[in-house]
Amino acid sequence: MNYIFRAVYKRPELLELSLKTQIEGYGADKYATVFAVDGGYDEKVLELVNDFPLPKEVIIRDSNWGLNRNNLEGIKMLMDRTDDFVISLEDDSITTKDFFKFLEYCYDNFVNKDTAGIAGYPSLYANPKDELTSVVRRTWMTCHGYLLIKEPFNKYLREHCNEEYYKDNAKYLKNLFGRDIRPLAFDSLAYQLFKKYNLHFLFPLCSRAAITGFYGGANLRSGKMEKLNYEERKKELESKLVNYLMGPGNMVEDVLNNKYIKKWDKLTMVDTDITKIGEIK
Half-sphere exposure of residue 182, counting CA atoms within 13 Å on the CB side? Predict the structure, then answer.
């Protein structure tokens, strides 16, 4: 069996939308989803996790581990149990109906010895005019809905998912690579190691995943969102989804139905014939 891993904490309005799109995904029920609920969690988050209708396992952390530690320790645990790979979804990841089929098709057809994983979020070269079937190789990775392959993770990444890295990832990256590197969560560590060992991720040009966490930003830093209750935060998210174009150019127009998201309760994902995916450019 292969697994889906989710590190969750506080943002229930984002998680609700994310879980909705996962449940609607073709083939989602073939995986067991393991939730790691970080210490200090929002009660609504735990409620959503407990109500999740697909096969699941729930881990409650004994303290606040922080996103990096909670996420990577969970992935490490599942790499010891999984057959081939672990799919990671964050609480603000939304996915197309063919997200899991897309990952599986790429895994079965395009993976080679230098492939570390597969992303649902697009290449930086994504363009609204690119056909749905285009897939490319890139040294970069993304944390917005991705698949990590067991063997390269254990060989190249696992040893660096440690307490020293969790404590001060900027310092760890500088010591490891000899220069200052912007510590963008797991992305930065993986990217540098991919370059060092000539590894790559597979990327769709037209996304199979998007993020909704963009609506925080300055609002979160100012404390505005913390003052709102769950329903108010959910309404805030809806208003931002209507007016914000997610991702580099094609997230709403080419991936989500009806051109733009008009209503919270009418969010649906596009259906794509996965068999039409062609050769990697």
Answer: 2
User: Residue 33: which of 62, 74, 65 has the closest Cα?
Assistant: 74
Which pairing describes strands 200-204 and 115-119: parallel, antiparallel, or unpaired? parallel
CATH code for the domain in which residue 71 is found: 3.90.550.10
> Is the Cβ–Cβ distance between 141 and 187 less than 8 Å?
yes
Residue found under tokens 């969790």: 166
pTM, two decimal places: 0.86
Residue 124's domain comprises: 3-276
Count of structural domains within the chain: 1
The torsion defined by the Cα of 150, 151, 153 and 157, in degrees rounded to 10, comes to 160
Per-residue pLDDT reduced to its tens digit, 113-123:
999 999 988 75
- Split at pLDDT 50, 70, 90, the class of 164 is very high
Distance (Å, whole) CA 195 – CA 137: 13
